Each structure stands twice: as C-alpha cells, then as structure tokens.
Amino acid sequence: MTAAAARVGRFYTSARRHPWVLGKVADWKIPLGPYTPAQIAVAVAGGFLLVKTIGWWSWMGPVPIVAWVLAIWAVRRPKIRGRAPMQAALGWVLLGWQPRGGRIGGRAARDRAPRALFGSFSIEVAPTPDPAVKATPSRAARLCAPRTPLAGLAAAPTMPVAPVSGVRQLLAFAHQGGAR
Q1: In which domain, by residue range, is 66 found?
Q2: Domain for residue 60, yes or no?
Q3: pLDDT on residue 164
Q4: Highest-pLDDT range among 66-70, 79-83, 162-166
Q5: CB–CB of 99/109 below 8 Å?
C-alpha cells in the first residue's frame, strides 16, 4: 500500500453538502429555479403586497412588477457580513429579544432594587492631653509623621489646635483647605 493511496481528503462547503434551495415541486421543475429561501420570501411578500395595492400602482404600468422581479433576482446570493439574510434577520430579532443587562446563568441579569441605607455617626471633641504625662506617639502616628530630608530644615507648620466643638473644628479644618 502506498502513502498516496492510503489517505484521501476531500472538503466540501456546507452549501455543496446541504443545499437549501427549492427547484422542484413534486415532478414539476420551477422555471428559472432553483430559488433560495430569501428569494421565496421576497416573491411571496412582494406578490401579496402588489395584489393588495394594485389600485395605487396600476397607473405606472409594469414598473412595479419589473421592480419586484429585480428584487427577487437581487436576493439570490446576498451576504450580510458573511451570513445569509434570513440568518442575519433572525440574529437581529434575537438580539432585540435579549434583556438589556444580558444574562447570568440563563436568567435575565437585573440590578438589585434600591434600598435606604440607615446609619449614624458622631463627631466628638478630642481629649486634651495631660501635660504631666509624657505621651509617646503610636506606631501609626510615627509612620504618618512628616519627615524632613535634612536635619537643618524646620518642620512643616502645623494647624493650631483649639478646644472647639467637633462640628466647628471640622468646619474650620475644611475652610482652611483640608490636609494639603
């Protein structure tokens, strides 16, 4: 057995394997056929529309009928981004059918209903330190303290602390521009 005779590969497009056209009805061959589903849809819908509106266009003569035949011919092999027009139309319909927020686990994704958030806070006056007790700064205070790169420079000016009520102290701090 030779290598060339061992394997034979063939590739057919889906249209050649499964053509979806209408060319015969029973033993009768349709004239100028076969027709695609898009052509059949345009022929049926356009024919129905022409019959129902004959009073409006009859004064034009054969122009609407010629336009109808040209429309049937024009949709024989159209592609919309590589897809047949019926599949593209179905895709648009299904896209419009989807929920606005999408799906999660097959169910429509919805935002949670708004709820009121209840809570409270209080602003208290900071206790004044006892001058007799020498307090050591906490680790967080030491880490957040401003550092001077050179020992000869003066420390950054600090905001004066006055024993004011908590709200007034907060307003004064905000008025001065906050922690710049």
Answers
A1: 20-80
A2: yes
A3: 46
A4: 66-70
A5: yes
